[in-house]
Each structure stands twice: as C-alpha cells, then as structure tokens.
Amino acid sequence: MLDGSEGKRSSTRADHPSEEWSHRPPSNAPHPYEGLIPQIQKKFLSKDVDALQPHVRAFVERAMTFTACPECGGTRLSEGARSSKIKGINIADACEMQISDLAGWVRGLDEPSVAPLLAALVETLDSFVEIGLG
C-alpha cells in the first residue's frame, strides 16, 4: 500500500530469486573444496608479485622461486616452435623485438603466397608505431 499498489502485492526480488540472482548459487549450496595448491596459485601466483601487499610479497618470495625454464628459456614454446625460423628469426625472437624493428623485418620478407597477410601485418605494426607503441 505504501508503494502505491493499492492493495496489490508488488513483485520483489524475494518473489523471483531465480530470475534476479541466477548467476549466484544459493547460499546453502555445497562448495567443493578446490585444494590448497589451486588456491595458492589463484590468490598469490596469478598476480604480479610487485603488486602484492608487503607481507604477502614476503611470503611469496620466501616460499617460491621463479626461474626461467632451462629448456625453453622462459619462452613457453616447444622445441618445434623454437626451431622454426624465418630468415633466422623464430617467434620468440620476433616477440622480443621493438615493434618498429619487427615492422622493418616483416617488410623485408618476400613471399608472394602470403603477400596480403604481410601487407596487413606491416600496416598494423606501422599504426602501432604511429601511436607511440613502437
């Protein structure tokens, strides 16, 4: 009555919880245990260590060591991907280049079968350089 419905009951969230809150499980739904390692990975290791609070950063630095893989050198590429090269450059080397240098390298590639792709890539890289990302 106070809402102007004159005796008619107005619909509220409580009347239709499944429609309003379908993205959340009910509070009494069982929550499966994730496990300790996945919880630590999600809470601490998926974040930038420098962005963590000092006491959390101290824990992470004490408990974990971060090193590059001796096999791939931290590229996370398989041996096949690392050994595939175009004019002496593999994908990891290309990713480490400055965008302006990469654009120059791509411009020097001459392969008619992929010429439209190379032209589009050079155009994209040049636009990155123009806006200051090079």
Structure description:
The protein is mainly α and 134 residues long. The protein has seven helices and no strands. It has a domain of 34 residues. Helix 6 packs antiparallel against helix 7. 2% of the residues are buried.
Give a quick rundown of the structure.
By secondary structure, this protein is mostly helical. The chain has helices at 17-20, 36-45, 54-63, 79-83, 91-96, 99-107, 115-130. The protein has a domain at 97-130.
Question: Which short descriptors sum up this protein?
Answer:
single chain; 134 residues; mainly alpha; 7 helices; 45% helix; 0% strand; disordered N terminus
What level of helicity do the residues show?
40-55%
Compute the separation of the termini in Å.
65 Å
**Cα shape:** elongated
Low-pLDDT residue intervals, each spanning 5 or more residues:
1-6
Return the average pLDDT rounded to an integer: 81
Q: The biggest beta sheet, please?
A: none
Order of helices and strands: HHHHHHH
Number of helices: 7
Q: How many extended strands?
A: 0
Please identify the structural class as seen in this structure.
mainly alpha
Q: Radius of gyration in whole Å, from Cα?
A: 27 Å
Strand fraction: under 5%
